[in-house]
Amino acid sequence: MVQQRELEVTHRSVFGKQTRKLRREGKIPANVYGHGQEPTPVQFDGHTFERLGYAHGLRSIVTLKGLGSGVETVLVHHVQREPIKDKILHVDFTRVSMDERIETKIPLHFAGEAPGVKVAGGMLLHLLEALLVECRASEIVEAIEVDITNLADIDSVIYAREVKLPANYILVTDPDELIIKIAATRAKLEAETTEAPAASTETKPEAS
């Protein structure tokens, strides 16, 4: 199961362009949504958020502390970043209870060696890095393992529907979405093109 961590937050009273000052002070503005409640504007320390690994996982379960009404269990729903410097600008959290079913993205972990690369000389193309699934919040895992040891030939593929999901998971991603593929390298394609005409170089005898 994914590790549940805690994040200390405080209520936020600045909005719009005024949040630039927060960011200069190392604070990140955020909103907490869901469960039929009004959105709650909060702020927290940006370095702590990065250090604890929340910033890159939509799957991350977080316990928010410091709101004055106990704790809030949430998911990191969206992290907005500055496009050039990649700095965090804003975070959206979604309230969850641990026994409810939710949709979330889970990263894929590719396990093993593909014979199509090692033996056939192909190139491994990762076409999808995460699957959208439905599961209980308490059953979210860090990653879903994908065995690639059966990818033996050029053009071998794995579809989303072929990935073995944990118990009680439902696939939301299009089942026909390509996950991974063995493609021919440019060198291999050029070699095949060069070899093809070689078989027809014999000269026919002249008619007498």
Please explain how this structure is put together:
The protein is mainly beta and 208 residues long. The protein folds into 2 domains: 5-96, Beta Barrel (Ribosomal Protein L25, Chain P), CATH 2.40.240; 102-192, RNA Polymerase Alpha Subunit, Chain A, domain 2 (Beta Complex). Helices cover 12% and strands 38% of the residues. The chain has 4 helices and 13 strands. The strands form 3 sheets. It has a 6-stranded mixed beta barrel with strand order 1-3-2-6-5-4. Strand 5 and strand 6 (88-95) form a beta hairpin. The longest helix has 10 residues, at 186-195. The N and C termini lie far apart (83 Å). 22% of the residues are buried. The model has no long low-confidence stretch (mean pLDDT 85).
Task: Write a brief caption for the model.
With 208 residues, this protein is mainly β. It has two domains: 5-96, Ribosomal Protein L25, Chain P (Beta Barrel), CATH 2.40.240; 102-192, RNA Polymerase Alpha Subunit, Chain A, domain 2. The protein is built from four helices and 13 strands.
What's the layout of helices and strands?
Layout: E1 5-11, H1 19-24, E2 27-33, E3 40-45, H2 46-51, E4 61-65, E5 72-81, E6 88-95, E7 101-111, H3 115-118, E8 123-126, E9 130-136, E10 144-147, E11 157-159, E12 170-171, E13 178-183, H4 186-195
Parallel strand pairs: 1-4, 2-6, 7-10
Antiparallel strand pairs: 1-3, 2-3, 4-5, 5-6, 7-9, 8-13, 9-12, 11-13
